[in-house]
Design a protein that fits this description.
About 10% of the residues lie in helices and about 40% in strands. By secondary structure, the chain is mostly beta strands. Helix 3 crosses helix 4.
């Protein structure tokens, strides 16, 4: 190969030489120089045309040199090559140019030859120097040396916003590691990207602070460290600020800084926002971090955000921020309007830096199940003074019912009240809203409707103001001298116009099924008066005009008409009207018919889906044949095998290609497309072909991390890391190239592909430095080569320690742990490798921590205790008997964070086969992925103990014959993924459990819910049964009783139910012969089981007794019987009810109650037809003890129920009464009596059998003469007799019902006790006076009727202490004792008035007054005297008639009741007759009573004015009426 370099300086037209030169290199395939020379003529001709003209000064010289160089033997021109004169001239001209070109070529060749010679000599000298230095270094390498600074740091004083560079040179053996510190704190370049730059070249260490600020003023130090010691160099950096910039300036004048514009900044985008997914109503931020140089706080870069190529502006819905090393776009209230392609464009020094990603916004949860999603992109068009046209885009309906229409709502700006504009849903995505107020601003929103409900409202539209659009057109602006504006209205030019002209151009601007929008041009002239319009319509051709806007004044030249009939054509005309009158009618419109102008678009054409990335698919389709004002497309997807479609986009997409994101890696999908316009969605396109979500096929990226594993002086063993991107196909080939470090020519190492990431390169020269590069290949081809490795010296390794481990990889990366794996060193050293140490450091840090204190012998290590989200790097050092070897190359940084959807390996047993298996479901796979199983992190491969099967994203490892040898830790790695992996430790206990389950599956039994059991049925039948968990229809079974199989027949029935799993046998007549053992044997497919029941001895006797009882019960229930036997209940008023329920009764059935065999006849006869009977026992007490019985009988039989109220039953009833009474008990009430102070508790019922306890100061009170305890039917009381101060204190009553205690209290102390004691003394004195006052004890009638001439004796017994005085009166006149009227008073007890031979004059009102010092009593008697033969006189003043009777005076002081008292017959007794029974009050008329004085109730009624310590209502009576 011969290289010819043509170099020429290009001259301009005027002979000026350009600053650059062009060089053209020709590669001529020639075997020798002579061949090259012979072929030069044609080549040189082409070169000359490219090179242009050369300088005239060197033409002759070049030509001469060319002639000499191209000299050839004499040559005779053949006849056929003879040239004409013109040809000769042309030949000479070309020859001249070629000569010039060859001269230039020759000069360039000479220059290149000299340059090459100089370079070769220089390389030889460098190689010689290098060899000498290497020998010197080899000698010095053996001498350990601590770090030493040859050149130390020096201090700097700089201006703010200028850079500063700190340099130092350090030496030491081994080579020291230098760390930089600021004020004793390590300098971290990652903490402020672009701020610090740390470098190390040829032993010179540098720290560059790119843009200083005042806070950078500090002492900086460089610390050099190796294993022999540490050295430190320090220097101070002072950053000054210019005068007037916040602090004084000490360094003099500040150079003027030119203004820096944002476009002059250098911006590098780092972390970029990816494809994002949001939900309506949520919020999202798109963030892109960047490095800005210089980073000026007050001058951030100029950033612009775009959505679908439309520039976004900051608003309430769009927030933008730039600064702090990031550009951020926040959407605080997401809606589907926000979906689209977002682009960040940042202006930089070199132009713009851009990044784009798609944002998907899905529908929020619907307001009702099945309701459609919200419409979007609501906008108002054609805005007039009282009319706007609202338009929107329809939502996508995937699995929801079709949309039937839309509701449009409006809201005035500043208000939250929405008003629905249309009564019926409109079916197109446009609606004319009229009736707006002029000058008012409005927002609009839309809701979609389908059969399931109404959608959520759309995002409200931008604010629009209802203004006359034609008003601005009526203004003319005239400029005078370019700076004065004169505004003239058309009204000024029209003159004085009253009645306006007629409108023109009446037509339909919108025609739909739902409505028609009429439009026209305003009149001219118009006039200054306010203008409105009147519209008329008629059927086309009829001329019958009818006004249609009677209730509305139209101010806009637009009007929607809704009530047109289908199929009819209409014409319209318009009048202009103002305060002066109406114009002429406009010219009628063309006939207008209410029809759809267009329908939905036709379905899109063929849909093709192709691979894009591991989670996205590229979908493209053919546009519909009929677009019909297309808005865009909706794309739907479906997983193959599923019936549910899902939306891929939620806002119509305008193009015919779309990238569907968010798909499951490795899953298979199909897609379809629908076109969208104002009428809705088209029919679905045909489905695409199924496509698996895999990255697009491409050649792999470059391998990296080339490292040397071993060298023997003539060969090197290399290893490298696999490409980060495999290109969608498995990497199956690697190609290695090499070159000397001193040359540029690469040579191939392997012609045949290397399949492993390790290669031994042979035939190397010892001592030579080599560089290597590697290329990876897959089905798509060979990828780009890696970057050249660092130069590696071919020198034999002779150290005793092992070489580096290699191929570090990670598995089971989780939030706090991971597993690191590696391969053993190729070079083992003087002895075998015995273990490994693993070191770890955080990314960006050089401080490594050894994770294992003792070397591990296996080539993996589980690392725990990591910080979730933190990034780490690792290295491995091998160990042998000689020591620790070289560390491996650093691993790739790994973030401690589990992949989304990561699962672990699960152990289980196959329900059908009983196989023990381990299963793993990958969260992502690709087409080239493989599931690699390992045991104790050693690949299993083909092993007879296990079998691996894979289906989709799930891989299963099945054990063929599991035993203890299979115990261990199993792990799995899914190749060609982002680290999908998992592990599971199989323990002995878990294996034994699974083996038991496996045995049960392989040797199945029929599982039983319940074993064989028995139950006694209603008629005394006995049912033997068991229940299986599951039975198949083909189940077979048999019953065995006492070793004999029984079958269904007379006396027993055998059956089963597959649905419930019950198998049963019913024995109709259970007798002593049925004692024994019962067994059921079941066969169901391969499974079988049996269950037995031993029914002998006491168990059998109990079953037999129960069966006989049930048999008798069945017989009993054939006639009238008790469905529920006697039981008791207690009502709210504490009445005890004995109740029972009866069944199978009829009208003739009789019911009787008995107590101790004595029949009880209740007030209300029992009604057996009601099904229940009850016997009330009011005021229940111990007297109600006894045996109660109820009988039920008719011609079919008799039944009896007995209830014994005694013992525990009696206590239960008392407790039930106490529970109700205690709950109703009032608080304690104080009542004073002549005997003392009484505390009373009122309740619904009280009996002494209730468990009540009275307490005084928490001490129980026993009934005594001092403290009496008693009660009445509705009250319990405790009386303190003759109270004293000792009885003061807190009193309580406790009523116990066996479950809880009801407590009521009263505090008898202080004023309450004082008032009560005073009342007691008063009542005691009153009682004494009442006891000793004079009174008539008995003997006097109320009325006496007597015949004249008879003797009347009025005799009574009186009492009093002291003896009272007795006075008789007649008609209020005192009666003196005479012969006719004799008054006597014997022994101080018996007073009498005897009238001998009464006459009519003796008739009248008689009375007796008995009185002593304590009081007395006045008793009246009415006496009537009638003549012989007269009828009895009519009773006067309500007095009864009495027959004639002659009273007989008492013979002895016997009680007067023995004296006969006349009593009228029943027939003669009027209804108003008084009872002869005396009343209990002292004021009543005296009647014959016992002569023994009986004191009255000791509790007299106090006077009204008396002060009582208790509420007045309790003073009326100690026993209130029963509720």
């Amino acid at each position: 190969m011969l290289y010819i370099v043509l170099s020429a300086a290009i001259h301009g037209v005027e002979g000026e030489r350009h600053s650059s030169s062009e060089r053209v290199i020709f590669l001529l395939p020639s075997a020798s120089a002579s061949q090259a020379a012979s072929g030069w003529s044609a080549t040189a001709l082409r070169c000359f045309n490219l090179l242009g003209k050369s300088s005239s000064k060197s033409v002759n010289q070049v030509q001469a040199q060319a002639t000499e160089a191209m000299a050839e033997p004499a040559y005779t021109i053949p006849a056929f090559r003879e040239r004409t004169a013109e040809g000769t001239e042309e030949y000479q001209r070309v020859t001249t140019k070629v000569g010039k070109g060859l001269t230039v070529i020759q000069e360039e060749l000479h220059r290149m030859r000299m340059t090459t010679k100089a370079q070769v000599e220089s390389l030889a000298i460098q190689r010689e120097v290098k060899d000498m230095m290497t020998k010197r270094v080899d000698l010095l390498d053996d001498i350990p040396k601590m770090p030493d600074f040859l050149v130390a740091l020096r201090p700097h004083t700089v201006w703010e916003k200028t850079p500063v560079k700190l340099f130092c040179t350090v030496q030491g053996n081994p080579r020291p590691v230098v760390k930089w510190y600021k004020g004793g704190v390590p300098v971290d370049p990652l903490s402020a990207p672009g701020k610090y730059k740390i470098d190390n070249k040829y032993g010179v260490h540098s720290l560059i602070i790119s843009r200083c600020v005042v806070s950078d003023t500090a002492e900086y130090s460089a610390v050099a460290t190796n294993q022999h010691g540490t050295a430190t160099s320090k220097a101070t950096v002072i950053v000054k600020r210019a005068s007037g910039a916040g602090e004084s300036c000490h360094l003099g004048l500040v150079p003027h800084l030119t203004e820096i514009h944002a476009s002059k900044l250098e911006v590098t985008l780092l972390d970029r926002f990816s494809v994002s997914f949001g939900v309506e109503g949520g919020s999202i931020s798109l963030v892109c971090s960047m490095v800005v140089v210089p980073d000026l706080p007050n001058l951030p870069p100029l950033a612009q955000w775009y959505r679908d190529d439309k520039l976004l502006k900051p608003s309430k819905l769009v927030e933008m921020a730039v600064g702090g090393g990031a550009a951020r776009l926040t959407l605080p209230q997401l809606a589907k309007d926000d979906e689209g392609l977002y682009t960040l464009r940042i202006f930089t020094k070199d132009g713009t830096a851009e990044h784009s990603a798609y944002l998907f916004v899905s529908d929020a949860a619907p307001s009702a199940a099945g309701a459609p999603g919200a419409p979007m992109s609501v906008k108002a068009y054609d805005i007039n003074s009282d009319y706007v046209l609202v338009a929107w885009k329809p939502p996508n309906t995937v699995n929801e019912a079709a949309i039937t229409g839309y509701f449009v709502d409006r809201c005035e700006a500043g208000s939250d009240t929405w008003v629905q504009c249309n009564d019926a849903p409109v079916k197109v995505c446009k609606y004319p809203v009229h009736g707006l107020k002029v000058g008012h601003s409005y927002h609009f929103r839309v809701r979609a409707v389908n059969s399931a409900g109404i959608s959520r409202p759309s995002r409200k539209s931008d604010k629009v103001t209802a203004l006359d659009a034609a008003e601005s057109e009526r203004l003319q602006v005239i400029k005078i001298k370019g700076k004065y504006d004169i505004v003239i209205k058309d009204d000024d030019l029209e003159g004085y116009v009253t009645i306006p002209g007629e409108p023109t151009d009446v037509h339909a601007s919108e025609i739909f099924k739902s409505y028609v929008v009429l439009s026209w041009k305003p009149p001219s002239p118009r006039g200054r008066a306010p203008l409105w319009y009147v519209i008329e319509k008629c059927l086309a051709g009829t001329g019958a005009w009818q006004r249609i806007n009677t209730a509305v004044k139209l101010h806009s030249p637009r009007y929607p008409v809704f009530d047109l009939q289908d199929g009819q054509k209409y014409q319209f005309r318009v009048y202009s009207v103002n305060m002066y009158g109406s114009s002429e009618a406009s010219v009628p419109s063309e006939p207008i018919q209410k029809v759809d102008e267009d329908g939905v678009p036709s379905a899109p054409g063929q849909v093709v889906a192709t691979r894009n990335t591991k989670s996205s698919v590229f979908v493209q389709w053919v546009a519909p044949k009929h677009l019909k004002n297309l808005m865009g497309y909706y794309i739907d997807g479906r997983i193959v095998g599923s019936k549910e479609w899902f939306p891929c986009n939620h806002k119509p997409f305008k193009h015919t290609r779309f990238v569907v994101h968010g798909l499951i890696p490795g899953e298979t999908y199909v897609f379809r497309v629908q076109a969208v316009n104002v009428f809705g969605l088209s029919e679905e396109s045909q489905e695409s072909s199924p496509i698996s979500v895999e990255p697009a096929l491409a050649s792999p990226s470059a391998p990296y991390g080339i490292t040397m594993l071993s060298c023997d002086g003539s060969s090197m063993t290399l290893a490298w890391k696999s490409p980060k991107h495999c290109g969608g196909s498995k990497v199956n080939a690697y190609y290695v190239d090499k070159r000397d470090a001193d040359t540029l020519l690469w040579k191939e190492v392997n012609l045949a592909a290397v399949t492993e990431r390790i290669c031994t390169v042979d035939n190397l020269t010892e001592g030579t430095f080599y560089e290597f590069k590697v290329q990876a290949g897959n089905l798509a081809g060979v990828g780009v080569p890696s970057a050249p490795s660092t130069p590696m010296k071919c020198e034999a390794w002779t150290m005793d320690e092992p070489g580096p481990a290699y191929d570090l990889s990670f598995s089971e990366v989780r939030g706090h742990s991971l597993v690191i794996l590696w391969k053993a060193p190729v070079y083992t050293g003087a002895s075998a490798v015995t273990g490994y140490f693993v070191d770890m450091a955080k990314k960006g840090s050089s401080e490594f921590v050894t994770l294992n204190q003792e070397a591990v012998s296996h080539r993996y290590l589980q690392v725990t205790g990591l910080e979730e989200g933190e990034t780490y790097v690792f290295r491995v050092r091998a160990v042998n008997a000689s020591g620790v070897g070289k560390p491996s190359q650093l691993s790739e940084p790994v973030c401690a964070k589990a992949l989304p959807g990561t699962k672990e390996i699960e152990a289980g047993v196959d329900e059908e086969t009983g196989d023990v298996f381990l299963s793993f479901e990958a969260c992502e796979i690709c087409e080239t992925s493989k599931f690699v199983w390992s045991k104790n992190y050693k690949a299993i491969g083909d092993c007879p103990r296990v079998a691996v099967t894979t289906k989709g994203r799930t891989s299963r490892l099945t054990f063929t014959n599991p035993d203890k040898d299979d115990l261990g830790k199993y792990s799995l790695v899914v190749t060609d993924t982002d680290g999908v992996s998992g592990s599971h430790t199989l323990t002995e206990d878990a294996l034994n459990t699974m083996l038991e389950l496996s045995y049960a599956i392989r040797h199945p039994i029929v599982p039983l819910k319940h074993g064989l059991n028995y139950e006694i049925l209603e008629k005394g039948h006995v049912r033997f049964w068991l229940q299986a968990v599951k039975l198949s229809p083909s189940v077979s079974y048999r019953f065995i009783v006492n070793d004999k199989e029984v079958t269904s027949g007379e006396g027993q029935k055998i059956s089963h139910d597959v649905a419930t799993g019950i198998i049963q046998m019913t024995v109709d007549h259970f007798t002593r012969a049925n004692e024994g053992t019962y067994t059921v044997q079941i066969h169901d497919g391969k499974a079988k089981t049996q269950s037995s029941l031993v029914l002998v001895g006491d168990v059998f006797k109990a079953a037999l007794k129960e069966a006989e009882f049930q048999r008798k019960e069945h017989i009993r229930k054939q006639g009238p019987h008790f469905a529920e036997y006697l039981y008791f209940t207690v009502t709210e008023d504490c009445t005890v009810m004995l109740a029972c329920k009866v069944a199978n009764v009829k009208k003739e059935t009789t019911f009787h109650w008995y107590k101790e065999d004595d029949e009880i006849v209740p007030e209300t006869p029992p009604n057996v037809m009601s099904g229940a009977c009850a016997l009330p026992i009011p005021l229940f007490s111990r007297k109600d003890h006894g045996v109660y019985k109820a009988t039920l009988s008719d011609d079919r039989g008799k039944d009896t129920s007995v209830f014994d109220i005694s013992g525990q039953v009696f206590d239960d009833i008392i407790n039930a009464i106490a529970k109700i009474a205690g709950a109703s008990a009032s608080e304690l009430v104080l009542q004073c009596t002549p005997e003392g102070i009484r505390l009373q508790c009122y309740m619904s019922y009280y009996t002494e059998e209730m468990k009540t306890v009275w307490k005084h100061k928490d001490s129980k009170i026993a009934s005594s003469e001092k403290m009496r305890i008693g009660g009445a039917a509705e009250m319990a009381w405790m009386q303190i007799c003759d109270p004293s101060d000792k009885e003061k204190g807190h009193y309580s009553i406790e009523i116990s019902d066996g479950e809880q205690t009801h407590t009521r209290t009263f505090d008898l102390s202080g004023q309450a006790y004082t008032d009560a004691y005073e009342e007691y003394l008063r009542l005691k004195a009153a009682a004494f006076a009442e006891k000793n006052r004079g009174r008539v004890v008995g003997g006097l009638p109320d009325v006496v009727t007597i015949m004249e001439q008879k003797s009347l004796s009025l005799t009574c017994t009186v009492w009093g202490e002291p003896t009272p005085e007795v006075t008789w009166f007649k008609n209020e006149q005192e009666v003196a004792s005479t012969e006719h009227t004799k008054v006597t008073f014997d022994g101080g007890k018996f007073a009498s008035l005897v009238i001998n031979k009464v006459t009519p004059e003796d008739s009248g009102k008689y009375s007796i007054n008995v009185r002593n010092k304590y009081g007395g009593e006045f008793v009246e008697i009415t006496v009537s005297v009638y003549k012989h033969g007269e009828q009895l006189p009519e009773p006067k003043l309500g007095q009864p008639k009495t027959p004639a009777a002659t009273p007989v005076p008492p013979k002895s002081p016997a009680p007067p009741p023995k004296t006969p008292t006349p009593t009228p017959s029943k027939a003669q007794t009027p209804a108003s007759m008084k009872s002869p029974t005396p009343a209990s009050t002292p004021a009543s008329t005296p009647v014959p009573k016992s002569p023994t004085p009986t004191p009255k109730s000791p509790t007299p009624t106090p006077s009204r004015g008396m002060k009582s310590p208790t509420p007045p209502r309790f003073m009326k009576s100690p026993t209130p009426p029963r509720k």
